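User: Predict the complex with zinc ion.
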Amino acid sequence: MEWGNSANINEEHLARLEEIDANLLQRAQSLAGQTDAPGQQEVKQAGDLVSSLSKGPAGGHEERVTNCRVQRPIWSLRAQVNRSQAAAVKAAQSIQALHERFASIERTVLDKDPQETALSRDRLSALLPGMEALLEDSKGSANGDAARADLVQSISEAKELLAREQTQVPRHDIESARQGLYQAADRVVQAQNRTSGIDCRQQDCLALTFDDGPSPISSQVFKALQDNHAVASFFSIGQKIDAQGGNTLAKIAQAGFPVGSHTWSHTDFALISAQHLQGREFSDAAAAVKASTGRPVTLVRPPHGSVNEQSRTDLLNGLAAGIALYNVDSYDWAPQASASSVEKKVLSQVRPGSIILMHDAYQHTADALPHIIDQLRARGDQVRFVTITQLTGEYPRAGDVYYSRTNILRM
Ligand SMILES: [Zn+2]
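Assistant: Here is the predicted structure with zinc ion placed in the model:
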């Protein structure tokens, strides 16, 4: 599933990027003759790149893995995974190449566009609450003083840019401030990791995640994690956060466990964009989580693990949140699931760097959890249970999709 989905998501993004860049080319050409217009040679090379990508084969992984339960010989499944992985990587390289080739054209053309500049300002201000929460949470982090000072500086520069009239600040300055914030935040995250003795490049880090709460099971899951000295992430459904659920989330967040959003009503991303439900499904859900935890949402978990291009853009522009997927499914949601089936599913798929999908909504999940933690710890003395941010060592990038420590799909 993981690589089939990665290929689809990257190819969808690449197609959109080609459309955006074709439009940028037209606008660049219409600037010809103006003093700050991009050079003809540059525009031609960028155009050549777009048309060479469009002519290429659509990935060569024609048969996609859409259903994990399809009965097929393991050899044929593995071959297909390899093709999907190759297609995902190829699309990612093309995305990167387009970004590099179009960087200066984008700067010239979009700096002149008030709508694009306003959008950039929105993205930057959406990022600030999460950055300020990181600053607050990293207080007293033994190795973090220099990194925190840089983040303080980056936040105040960003605020200063946003306080000035839009016409006084070019778009590319806003974008640089946004990138600067991410880099400063990454250094704080890495300093926090050092303080906690976490280095997921060297250790066998695992990110346990729990969706579909809060529910009465959430407290049991939380207790099992605490009793076993393990950290995990929770992704809550906005409309389930009643007074009792909110109290549970407050306790979970107090212990330093991140709580993300799993939309307001467990609605598929495709439906959210088709029916324009972003306000309720993304914004209201994030506000409900924040009201309980006191922390802004920096990661969203898509219902049914399904991501689309429009929602990635919506999350980039609106919440400044990343998208947390997973590469291990515990199948605790399946009708026949039991504590032992959940344990087997996790233990058979997990590898260092995995993000593991479970649900704080089933008794069998809470029952299986202590055994899963024990079994995983028994695999080596380098096993660490971490948050997704600790796992990647980076502040979540808005719109990026996180499958595991190393499989991250960039916008
Ligand atoms: Zn769910």
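The CA atoms of residues 161 and 168 lie 9 Å apart.
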